[in-house]
From TrEMBL:
Pfam families per record: HTH_1, LysR_substrate
Alphabetized UniProt keyword annotations: DNA-binding, Transcription, Transcription regulation
UniProt cross-references to PROSITE patterns, sorted A to Z: HTH_LYSR
UniProt xrefs under InterPro entries: LysR_HTH_N, LysR_subst-bd, WH-like_DNA-bd_sf, WH_DNA-bd_sf
Gene3D superfamilies (UniProt xref): 3.40.190.290, Winged helix-like DNA-binding domain superfamily/Winged helix DNA-binding domain
HTH lysR-type domain span: 1-57
Keyword Phosphoprotein: no
Record's signal peptide: none
Similarity comment text for this entry: Belongs to the LysR transcriptional regulatory family.
Coiled-coil parts of chain: none
Name of the molecule in the record: LysR family transcriptional regulator
Keyword Lyase appears in the UniProt entry: no
């Protein structure tokens, strides 16, 4: 149908079957057959035939506007392909919320650079609502946020679910991990993530729900710094499960304690972007590569 729409647009623009046929380098009968095929597929006449004159019907006008839109998208697509093929390096700008910048983004960047050696990646950080605005305003190509996003202008792909876990220095464990309960967080010395992120909101909501009053010693906006300080300060923390790597735990002499109530602090890390039709082919490819890194939303 795409080719027939192109031919139809030329008929409209030249106001003549003969002229359009000459431009297309085909016979007028052949062009008439292609037009008839298009009208048959759509199910209505696109022209009113008044003698030798052709006048667009209302559906014909709508079809012409659609054909122009397809032509513009095709032209933009071919330009993007040409740029992708002829440019030695490709560029991707990722917007990442503060928590995903520290948990998910490093793995994504590593995978993209391994699969695409000529890619240059720029990362911009911000709060979730800021990343959503950056994507919507074309300031970044894609966004990684630690929540679902409902926005009619954006596509949101869930990558994986995450929840909080209790992390404690091994030298302060006074009971087997399976003996810990949510009530043990009450008056527990803790280092927490800084206010203003959804992880801190999640933590505060948890404390309020179970009427907990931990002994908050510090508030820091770096997961790595928190982990390094736990052993020295003999304090615990609540961090996203996705950040906890075995080597991090070993290097800092830490243990992860799973508490049932913490599994309810679930959030979904999502990949957000504009409609695929508006993205250049390279970004479309990278979006697919990122999504493929995660087997399912429960990864």
């Amino acid at each position: 149908m795409i080719e027939e729409l192109h031919m139809f647009a030329l008929i409209v623009e030249h106001s003549s079957m003969n002229k359009a046929a000459n431009v297309l380098n085909i016979s007028q009968p052949a062009l008439s057959r292609r037009l008839a095929k298009l009208e048959q597929e759509i199910g209505v006449d696109l022209f009113d035939r008044i003698g030798k004159r052709l006048e667009l019907t209302r559906v014909g006008q709508l079809t012409y506007e659609y054909a122009l839109e397809l032509r513009q998208k095709h032209h933009k697509f071919m330009q993007s392909v040409a740029e992708f093929v002829h440019t030695e390096r490709s560029h991707l700008t990722i917007g990442a919320s503060l928590t995903t910048l520290q948990t998910t983004l490093p793995d994504i960047i590593q995978a993209l650079t391994v699969n695409n050696p000529n890619i240059d990646i720029k990362a911009i950080t911000g709060k979730t609502h800021e990343i959503v605005s950056y994507v919507r305003d074309h300031k970044v190509d894609i966004g990684i946020v630690a929540s679902g996003v409902e926005d009619p202008l954006l596509h949101s792909t869930p990558l994986f679910h995450d929840h909080l876990v209790l992390v404690v220095p091994r030298n302060v464990l006074q009971a087997p991990p399976e003996k810990f309960s949510i009530l043990d967080l009450n008056h527990l010395p803790m280092i927490l993530f800084s206010k203003g992120t959804w992880y801190r909101v999640l933590t505060d909501e948890l404390f309020e729900k179970y009427q907990l009053a931990p002994d908050v010693r510090m508030e820091i906006d770096s997961f790595e710094a928190i982990l390094r300080l736990l052993h020295t300060c003999r304090a615990a923390t609540l961090l996203p499960r996705s950040y906890m790597r075995q080597q991090l735990l070993l290097d800092n002499e830490l243990a992860v304690i799973n508490i049932g109530e913490l599994e309810n602090t679930k959030r979904t890390t999502s990949l957000i972007h504009l409609s695929p039709e508006t993205m250049n082919p390279s970004v479309q490819l990278w979006v697919k590569q990122i999504a493929s890194l995660f087997d399912s939303p429960t990864h």
